[in-house]
């Protein structure tokens, strides 16, 4: 029994020693890559809203406006199937009358949303000018983006890898060690990720006038940021 325990102990120590001899020394760093670009397209959400004495009148007015707005949008899109419309939402509207000290019926409300993609921001001004000729209620939101986002993300990924390599070389030089091959490299950012610059409640229409914020034809600068983790083998 004692011999068995002795041989087992020797074998275990040998296995542990062999495992440590195979372990590699590495440097782990994080790299950062960033590319910026202005948007060249936008996803626009329009809102229609009508209040009339009867529900039928409100719905009919909403449908007339929807038809006019969709006809207008078709002049600015390549694929008309990409024009999305929500279901009509209806509601009973009332307001507080301070003289009567009670809620007073105003009418029935009919509202609906239209979403489409404007692929040429140079047409934004022309579009909004024509849109004001209709009875739409407001531009609810504009999500600006760049149609070349996939290529821009790839550029950011390349810069992140170059940054990680530069950091690795600098740290290795400071530590007086040599670098070998890359053991592992990873990122949580996909080249297919979209980047948006979103603005909400752009402007509302009050009769023939406009209120709220103005509409930008260019949007805000979009940043494409990628972070990578890289592990490189080193030896002295």
From TrEMBL:
<protein>
    <recommendedName>
        <fullName>SIMPL domain-containing protein</fullName>
    </recommendedName>
</protein>
<dbReference type="GO" id="GO:0006974">
    <property type="term" value="P:DNA damage response"/>
</dbReference>
<dbReference type="InterPro" id="IPR007497">
    <property type="entry name" value="SIMPL/DUF541"/>
</dbReference>
<dbReference type="InterPro" id="IPR052022">
    <property type="entry name" value="26kDa_periplasmic_antigen"/>
</dbReference>
<dbReference type="Pfam" id="PF04402">
    <property type="entry name" value="SIMPL"/>
</dbReference>
């Amino acid at each position: 029994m004692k011999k068995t325990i002795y041989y087992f102990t020797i074998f275990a120590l040998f296995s542990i020693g062999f495992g440590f001899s195979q372990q590699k020394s590495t440097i782990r760093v994080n790299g950062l890559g960033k590319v910026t670009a202005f948007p060249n397209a936008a996803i626009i959400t329009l809102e229609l809203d009508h209040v009339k004495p009867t529900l039928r009148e409100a719905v009919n007015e909403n449908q007339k406006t929807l038809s006019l707005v969709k006809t207008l949008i078709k002049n600015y899109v390549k694929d008309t199937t990409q024009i999305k419309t929500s279901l009509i939402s209806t509601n009973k509207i009332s307001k507080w009358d301070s003289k009567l000290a009670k809620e007073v019926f105003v009418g029935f409300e009919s509202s609906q949303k239209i979403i489409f993609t404007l692929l040429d921001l140079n047409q934004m001004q022309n579009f909004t000018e024509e849109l004001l000729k209709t009875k739409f209620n407001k531009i609810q939101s504009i999500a600006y983006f760049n149609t070349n986002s996939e290529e821009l993300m790839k550029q950011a990924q390349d810069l992140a890898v170059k940054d990680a390599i530069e950091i690795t070389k600098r740290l290795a030089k400071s530590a007086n060690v040599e670098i070998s091959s890359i053991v592992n490299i990873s990122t949580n950012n996909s080249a297919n990720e979209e980047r948006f610059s979103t603005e909400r409640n752009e402007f509302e229409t009050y009769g023939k006038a406009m209120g709220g914020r103005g509409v930008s034809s260019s949007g805000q600068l979009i940043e494409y940021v990628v972070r990578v983790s890289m592990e490189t083998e080193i030896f002295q």
